Amino acid sequence: MAQKTKQAASLPKPHKVHYEFGGPIGAAGIVFGLPILLNVMYFACNDITGCPAPSLLHPKSLDLEVLKREVGWPENGLCGFFSWDAMGWTLGYYLFNAILHRVLPGTEMEGVVLANGGRLKYKLNSFSSTLFTLAILAAGTFSQGAEFPVWTYISDNYLQLLTANILFAAGLATFVYVRSFEVKPNDPNNRLLAAGGHTGNMMYDYYIGRELNPRITLPVLGMIDIKEFMEIRPGLLGWIILNCAFVAKQYRLYGYVSDSILFITIVQALYAFDGQYMEPALLTTMDIVRDGFGYMLAFGDLVWVPFLYSQQTRYLAVHPQHLGPSGLAIVGAVLLVGFVIFRLSNLQKNTFRTNPNDPRNANVKYINTKTGSKLMISGWWGVSRHINYLGDWLQSFGYSVPTLLAGYTILSAGTGAAGAYKMLDGREVVAGEAKGWGMIFTYFYVLYFAVLLVHRAGRDDDMCSAKYGEDWEKYKKIVKWQIIPYIY
After folding, report:
1. pTM, entire model
2. How far apart are CA 462 and CA 473, in angstroms?
3. Whole-angstrom Cα distance, residue 214 to residue 175?
4. Among candidate residues 322, 353, 381, the one where a domain is terminated
5. Fewer CB atoms inside 10 A, N or C side of the chain?
């Protein structure tokens, strides 16, 4: 009888198919649409003619050939999006991260209890890996300045690097999808299918992720938990590296670095550092505990995070903004408030989940549920059910504000436009009629992140409702607000 019970626990529980993100059609739209969106943002907001490109401001008289010249469309068309050289360096980047995961010391930790009663072990050293990598880049920059080949290569091959990472993410998602069909009951390595990732629809399952925690053992490098590795390492580090490359680009263009781009680069790096330093807390998040690893997380971690989240510095590299002490203080205050809410609320949640007997939990109030779990109703988590999301969103707003009323047009040397930023090669950058239109690109992250967090809160509430039943309804009567107290 005990054997049957163990076997049943290792099988995914029968479930009614529940689609998210618009089901198979929505999944297909995201899989094919987001790569196109990032490419559109790259071309439409460029360092050749403007942000947006001048022709886009006059759609009625739009000429395709003129637009191609304005956005820097490759002479060989779509073939110009890809280069083997960029793909080689991209693969080398992931391999380098894997080597650091293997050779640098790290903390060994166990994840949460799985549906089959097992627990996975993780090696955590992303923070030290990032510091090691940035130390190498700092040494190169100290030696060669803004002309350090890493920075110039990224600027000169941004489109090809974007394509290489898109292809890598898609290839990785395909690999884990195909390999997920190897998962069998009572797998000795605790391989499980994600509860919502095996609907039977290929497109949807490919997007959402079939296997919960796919792992691979590589020669010399050993075992790598693909989801945890990709979630916290190459994308966050890539975000920092891209920002640094744009700082170097601004210096090459103007001979100085503006306070706005330096400020954003530093605070976003601190955000990434914080996430990696608190890597143990990742093991209790929705991404690790509930979601499978598919295209959604592969693309999100490896492409969306570094290439979308660095849009502000990409913009400021060409159109510098000087905030001054008062401007920096205001933006810094918004970011600090957001970070304090985000970090302290997540710390309280993680401490309560992993060690309820911790002295810091002595005054925490909670309700017991029929599942044996406890739901906090005091402290940060008595304010709203997803108070950490509010802190996260406030930070995203602070990242975009330094671009002000974004938008610029690049004029040829000698134009003599009033108030223009003059590049070292003589070209002039003015806001002109593009003023405000550039916010489509630099503030897109704020809008997207708000939609993401609201959707994510809804997903979490649905899952908790299914898990806790009437206890969840009782909890919601006590903690009434979803994200923003007294508003939403």
Report:
1. 0.89
2. 11
3. 10
4. 322
5. N
Backbone angles phi, psi at 179, to 5 degrees: -70, -20
Q: Which two tokens stand for residue 236?
A: 């966050």
Q: What is the pLDDT of residues 25-69, one digit of tens each?
A: 999 999 999 999 999 999 999 999 999 999 999 999 999 999 999
Separation CA 226–CA 224 (nearest Å): 6
Place of tokens 């000429």: 63
Contacts for 125 with CB less than 8 Å, ≥ 6 apart? 100, 101, 104, 105, 106, 107
**Nearest CA-CA partner of 298 in 171, 384, 201, 454:** 171
For the residues 357-379, what does the mean pLDDT come to?
A: 82
- The whole-number pLDDT of residue 156 equals 97
Domain boundary among 322, 340, 364: 322
393 within a domain of the structure (yes/no): yes
Angle formed at CA 266 by CA 436 and CA 397, multiple of 5 degrees? 40
Q: Quick check: 169 and 93 in contact, CB under 8 A?
A: no
CB-count burial class (<10 Å; 0-12, 13-18, 19+) for 370: exposed
Contact 456, 286 (CB under 8 A): yes
DSSP 85-119: HHHHHHHHHHHHHHHHHHHS--EEEE-PPPTTS--
**Which tokens belong to 452?**
């993401």
3-class SS of residue 314: helix
> Worst-scoring range by mean pLDDT, 4-18, 175-189, 207-221, 302-316?
4-18
Tell me the per-residue pLDDT of 95-129, one tens digit each, with 9 for 90 and over.
Answer: 999 999 999 999 999 998 888 888 999 999 999 99
**SS3 of 448, please?**
helix
Are 378 and 331 members of one domain? yes
pLDDT at 8: 36
Does residue 316 sit within a domain? Answer: yes
